[in-house]
Amino acid sequence: MTGLEPVRPDRLRDFLNREAGHLGFDVVAVTAPDATPLASQRLASAIDHGRHASMEWLAETAARRGDPRVLWPEVRSIVMLAMNYGPDENPLDLLERPDRAAISVYARHRDYHDVIKGRLKELAQKLASRSGADVKVFVDTAPVMEKPLAHAAGIGWQGKHTNLVSREFGSWLFLGSIFTTAELAPDIAETDHCGSCRACLDICPTDAFPAPYQLDARRCISYLTIEHKGPIPREFRAAIGNRIYGCDDCLAACPWNKFAQTASEAKLVARDDLREPRLADLISLDDGAFRALFSGSPVKRIGRDRFIRNVLIAAGNSGDPTLIPPVEPLLDDQSPLVRGAAVWALSRLLDNANFARAIGDRLHDEDDPAVLAEIDTAYTRETAGGLQ
Predict the structure, then answer these.
(1) Can 287 be counted among the known catalytic residues?
(2) How far is the C-alpha of 181 from the C-alpha of 183, rounded, in Å?
(3) What is the distance between the alpha carbons of residues 71 and 84, in angstroms, rounded to a whole number?
(4) What is the three-class DSSP state of 381?
(5) pLDDT (tens digit per residue) in 7-56
(6) What is d(CA 68, CA 32) in angstroms, rounded to the nearest whole number?
(7) Catalytic-role residue among 140, 207, 287, 320
(8) CATH number assigned to the domain covering 9-88+109-180
(9) Coil, helix or strand for 284?
């Protein structure tokens, strides 16, 4: 509390709009903490069906996610902020270049948690100073269901791909929130404008949408390449193509993107070296080189081993024999996750006889069950007489 005389709510909103714009936010809207009564039911249903996959924190924090008042009982208003990160090219075009690595558009920038949280904190401090109210700031990592709240605040609506869609910015918005004890007039919720369109559902390479407005993370490429810690299930590997971190297909397919604006360079700057990196330049990264390349990037959070696993899946899908020399040494990598992915990649890049030679003595040295399972699956009866 500052001891300042409280500002009238209408003037406080004008102040918020002005200051948010100065900080680079494209949209500011307000909703009430009880404005998403169906969110908890939908989350519970997804968890009951196991669609949260290995993300156990979703189940553990379901009560707080479902009702902001459980997270902070004193909250009276929620200010939702959005920042456009619209790309200046169609990210789907890169999928036609199998020698290149497709990194999700949002991850080509500096980690949005850092970018947005710093600006949210600055705005929240100004709000607290001007109103005398208490504030809390949240960006993604907290148990806050930002997309339903942004829908309720009128920023956009949750499309059939479950992501937020805006009539002004398409599917390209970063979200953050300020919870406050200040009483602010809520905005009107946006209506659903998807109509009969199924573009986002039909383009999904792994059929991750069991129904419109429902997502099964177990089949989602973004989950598989980012959150999933073990070997990627074989049934999804070919469909992943050259996507090594996340997937933009359902976002990029949305027709509302035709109204989207390219993100201002003054707000968010995409790294040129992450737009279309060569698989050949990524395969051999050790831990130090990985950390250096992805310093300040959200990619860094998955760690080198998971990242190289993803790159090897893309290499196996590339059909590019020039990737064989950098892949082969990874059969001896310290990480079983990497070794197993290298086995799969080589089984796709080499003919049977050369694959058998590449595996060679490693059959007798390998003791990890998951890697042995990869070898056993890849080693068909036609491969140099089968396993010996």
Answers:
(1) no
(2) 6
(3) 27
(4) coil
(5) 666 789 999 999 999 999 999 999 999 999 888 888 888 888 899 888 88
(6) 9
(7) 140
(8) 3.40.109
(9) coil
